[in-house]
Amino acid sequence: MRKINVFDTTLRDGEQSAGVNLNFEEKIEIAKQLERLGVDIIEAGFPASSKGDFNSVKAIADLIKGSSVTGLARSKQSDIDAAWEALKGGEEPRIHVFVATSPIHMEYKLKMTPDQVVETAVASVKYAASKFHHVQWSAEDASRSDFAFLAQIIEEVIQAGATVINLPDTVGYTTPQEIKNMFLYLKEHVPSIDKAILSTHNHDDLGMAVANSLAAIQAGANQVECTINGIGERAGNAALEEIAVALNIRKDHYQADTGLTLKEIKRTSSLVSKLTGMVVPNNKAVVGQNAFAHESGIHQDGVLKNKETYEIITPELVGVSSNSMVLGKHSGRHAFKEKLKELGFTGTEDQLNRIFKSFKDLADKKKEIT
Ligand code: KIV
Ligand code: ZN
């Protein structure tokens, strides 16, 4: 069983969600909960971006001992210096430095030639490695980059001291098969690839961030970058809870797992939702309010006879105390009777028949009976 490192970027990429602005205390509270959840790496922010980010990254690095803390930096000495000042007090200081490698980003955003991008990347990694023991380098927009160019630049940054190579699908454009091809290509064409840990980072513009992350893991990524509830730029990032639970439930298939304390998932999700103001949809996998709710009579009857008929994840696994049988017009007599029992009511068959009929009449007028 491979162990996959979980790199949580809720406090950096997640905080880049439109309309989200966490204050200092809120970031500390989330970082402590991420530590309890057992994430391997917390990306606490982007120290050079503002005084507020610098202060919170520094406080988190100084405080958190159970997870490694990192911060983002552009390929500039001043960003790397700011990251060092913020992170140097941590248990295991690590930096995340990046530059874009796709033709469109290099030409229009950076206004650099590919050779200049290689030179910039190598210089930034060398400088970062002169301070940090762990240097993660990201090829922004990797999935839309030329793979031969990616192979060349990755070899050079590994030689320069990068210990983790992260390959983001920055705009959520790629597909599971394509991301696999990218990782497999690079494993074959980068001579020093085994000297670095491969990492995947996916955005959800086409709704494939989690599927792409899992595909990258299958193709050799040993680190996955994600956010709680999938919050992040535009349509968000890959959802940590979905990846972690998919790996756990389908260990047979992926032959890989995380070291997370899964029963902290629900609590972490609720905390992040409350502090960011980003509501979790009821039907969201793993953490949505309806994720363990059974409404139809056929399903309720099955679950009461044997939970595994319709439940592949136990609510307890992710810290939800029990499943919730929602009583509505599709509910059957079996679930209705169980609910009455749970509420402390018993009665004769005749009484049950009468009250069940009243319940059905009411259920035709109301969505949910409480
Ligand atoms: O999506 C992305 O490319 C990023 C990088 C900064 C890693 O968030
Ligand atoms: Zn991102």
Describe the 3D structure:
The chain is an alpha/beta fold and 370 residues long. The protein has 2 domains: 2-276, TIM Barrel; 293-363, no CATH class. 43% of the residues lie in helices and 15% in strands. The protein is built from 14 helices and 12 strands. It has helices at 24-37, 51-63, 77-87, 103-110, 114-129, 147-160, 176-189, 209-218, 240-249, 251-254, 265-276, 297-305, 333-342, 349-363; strands spanning 2-3, 5-8, 41-45, 68-74, 94-100, 134-140, 164-169, 197-202, 223-226, 256-257, 293-294, 324-325. The strands form 3 sheets. The chain has an 8-stranded parallel β-barrel with strand order 2-3-4-5-6-7-8-9, surrounded by 7 helices. Strand 11 (293-294), helix 12 and strand 12 form a beta-alpha-beta unit. Helix 1 (24-37) packs antiparallel against helix 11 (265-276), helix 5 (114-129) packs parallel to helix 6 and helix 6 (147-160) crosses helix 7. The longest helix has 16 residues, at 114-129. It is elongated. The mean pLDDT is 96. The structure holds 3-methyl-2-oxobutanoic acid and zinc ion. 3-methyl-2-oxobutanoic acid (KIV) is lined by residues 13, 98, 138, 140, 168, 170, 201, 203.
Concise description?
This protein is an alpha/beta fold.
Give a quick set of tags describing it.
TIM Barrel; 2 domains; 370 residues; binds zinc ion; binds 3-methyl-2-oxobutanoic acid; alpha/beta; two-stranded parallel ribbon
